[in-house]
Design brief:
two-stranded antiparallel sheet, about 80 residues, alpha+beta, Rubrerythrin, domain 2, about 15% helix, globular
Length: about 80
Amino acid sequence: MNKTQKRTSRCPYCRERILIRENPRIGQYLICSACGEEAEIVRLDPIVLDMVYLPDADGNRIEEYEFWDTYWEGA
């Protein structure tokens, strides 16, 4: 990739574009400048952002099926 090329992805919270800096990596957290929420890089090509999930009381990841349904409808 050309170093001057800008990569972006959509914020999973507000759908605004987030600029991805050089050398992105899976698990990297980004903060949306529009809504202030934190998003995580979950895929690199193309770059896909996901909500940052906190574990529930049992340590399990919070269900995300409803989120993905609406996310891909708007993509």
